[in-house]
Amino acid sequence: MRKTIFVAATGQHVGKTTSTLGLVANLKEMGINVGYCKPVGQQHVDLDGMIADKDAVLFAKVLGFNLDPELHSPVILGSGVTAKYIDDPSQYEFHERLDFAASELSRLHDVVVYEGTGHPGVGSVVDLSNADVARKLNASVIMIAEGGIGSTIDRLAMSLAVFREKNVPLIGVIVNKVLPEKLEKVEHYLSKRFAQMNLPLLGVLPYDKSLSFPIMETVKHAVRGHIAFNEDRMANRVEEIVSGSLIGTEELNTLRNIVLVVSHKRLEEAIGKIKWISAARGLEESPLSGVIVTGDGRHEFPVERSGICVDYFMTHQIPVLTTALDTLGTVIKISRIEVKINTRTPWKVQRAEELIREHIPLPVLLGIENGK
Hints:
Layout lengths: L3 E6 L6 H14 L4 E4 L2 E2 L2 E4 L2 E4 H10 L5 H4 L2 E2 L4 H7 L6 H15 L2 E5 L14 H7 L3 E7 L3 H16 L4 E9 L4 H15 L3 E6 L9 H8 L2 E4 L10 E4 L14 E6 L3 H15 L6 E7 L12 H10 L3 E3 L4 H9 L10 H14 L2 H5 L6
Parallel strand pairs: 1-7, 1-8, 2-7, 3-6, 8-9, 9-10, 12-13, 13-14, 14-15
Antiparallel strand pairs: 4-5, 11-15
């Protein structure tokens, strides 16, 4: 059985963290004593004086282990580190930190899964590219690529070259986010081309829209909004964006988890339409997961003046944001959100586990012959 696995990706936003989480969670469900580590991190958080990569924090909370930054997030490339490293590499003990973490994790666990950072070349500036780290850890690599045919193969050819240069063994490729209606075609042609390239295809994961749903907290940051009501509901998920000027029964593709984006001038009119639609469809609960009251591009406007709307917000516990952005600018900002899995999106954690369990042969991944 493989003891050390390194999960890399052809680029950002292809589902590396989600796939890694699903993999580790399933190995744990199989009764395997599995550990996790983010050996090189960039985006970090401060927890009671401890600095750790945000993904290590996520995994600790979701999987229920005690976070030890020395083990689970040994190297952080914070602001200014790269320039200082180039000036004087000797002031950093990156390799010693990695050695210590790897030694302890291998002692504590039967299998350790390491999650890479960004594309394969990230970290090269400090001699810690994904390939450098995987080789140092004596790990075998799983490569995550985004779904397609030509573009997928092209990116893989470039990404895998970095690992081949370092003589890092490849377990196989997981192709993620393939549109369900194209799943059969993509799998057929990738399997055919991968065989010609001597690349093992571990599995193809369908695109799951629920994994792209943001929560209101994420929306707040995207539009630089301020919370007017119901701050405790900022974990509400957003499945559809509806502009207040376009509300009508035919425009609503779903009747739940809608974020209403509306000018302060049309707020009462829009809420009135939502009430009418809810009554017409027999809805007991509001279809809104949140409301964003927009400005004129420069100024925010208060919403407390509308007693009718405030009563509706409080009755249905709808989080309300205000933003200086106008309605079009707000919709554009929300539509461009790159959604990340986090501790406030439990449905994504569960779905990540299901996708790996349903589509990836874990015994093959672990190097267990005949699944035993």
